[in-house]
Amino acid sequence: MLLLNQHHDHRKALDGIDAETLGLKAAEEVERFLAYRGNHAPTPLHSLAVLSSELGVGAIHMKDEGFRLGLGSFKALGGSYAVIRLVLEEASRRLGRPVDVAELPMSEVRSIASGMTVACATDGNHGRSVAQGAQLVGAEAVIFVHSGVSDERVAAIARFGARMIRVEGTYDDSVAEAARVASEKGWTVVSDTSWPGYERIPGLVMQGYTAMVREALRQLPETPTHVFVQAGVGGVAAAVAAHFALVFGDRRPTFIVVEPARAACLFETARAGYPVKIAHGEPTVMAMLECYEPSLIAWRVLSRTADGFMIVDEEDAIAAMNRLARPVGKDPAIVAGESGGAGLAGLIRATADPEIRAALHLDETSRIFIINTEGATDPERYAELVGMRPDDVVLHTDGAET
């Protein structure tokens, strides 16, 4: 199902703070910070030429975030970056002078960081990034996870030294509990979603994601005509859409937000015209996208920069995972987690529906950009859904652009 953006702010300029947070200068600063990360390397961009021919479009390029900073997800760019920024700001305040990222190893900076505790709620990937960022700077991390987060994902976070707290209920319940406990304890919440009065830190998290777009724009052979990006609370979709809008203005690509049908809070927000919290129903296989209330910053951005909102079913996501793992011809094999291929699932559904094709002007000249937002962050679940272990999915370079 496709819902075109009918909001009165559609295609209007971004708010000043959002333009500053998600624009070119901010992205360049994120990339400067990344240069100080020992395991930083640009993630690959793959050309899916055979699939594009099958779907009747000109080209499909997929940015593969399964390789990002050893964490297997684009989230590695956001939470850890925000933690580092917050530590540097506190060190600057305490030392009475500007403190740059190059000074993170200094004993006086690490001493300040050791007295700080960061906290967040997570479905898995964001918490891992926050925990890794805390470990990098020597701060403490407390991560709240809801009852649906697998033990494997909890263990993957805990290995960075984070203290883990289980919360009954949904992701949104864990967000509320993290905010409550952090307020009582004097901890700093590093959330990837925002609410009234809490926007700056989620803005920093989103800012981290812009580095991914800068890389992609250097790698792409041509500017895309269409972008399909999946969404939970909407942070990555908003960051990508905003950066494309700020770089290309009126020439920007058509931007489509893709969500699970079982957790389509942005779709329903777009239908209502204002942020809404939807009811919790049956869990979605797209666990990293299972969110029932949008980030206020994300909606503010997407109300201006998204052109349409789509929902996909469980079988769509699983089919996309399997297609990427078992490509045809010279298309590369790609390991995509349950949520990683959701953007592709949206594209496949769109091209199969004549009305959606026409509404989005998808044809044989269309150049599509999509993102594999995560690799197999839960290898057992991946093997269950794909019938292969992620290590058995051989990444072919034939036909791939890196």
Automatic annotation (TrEMBL):
Q: Which organism is it from?
A: Microvirga guangxiensis
Under the heading InterPro entries, the entry gives: DiNH2opropionate_NH3_lyase, TrpB-like_PALP, TrpB-like_PALP_sf
Keywords of the record, alphabetical order, are: Lyase, Pyridoxal phosphate
Q: Please give the superkingdom of this protein's source.
A: Bacteria
Query: Chloroplast: is it a keyword of this entry?
Result: no
Gene3D superfamilies recorded for this chain? 3.40.50.1100
Full protein name: Diaminopropionate ammonia-lyase
In terms of Pfam families, this protein maps to: PALP
Necessary cofactors? pyridoxal 5'-phosphate
Describe the location of the Tryptophan synthase beta chain-like PALP domain by residue ranges. 39-371
GO MF, one annotated term:
diaminopropionate ammonia-lyase activity
The lineage is: Bacteria, Pseudomonadati, Pseudomonadota, Alphaproteobacteria, Hyphomicrobiales
Does the record bear Lyase in its keywords?
yes
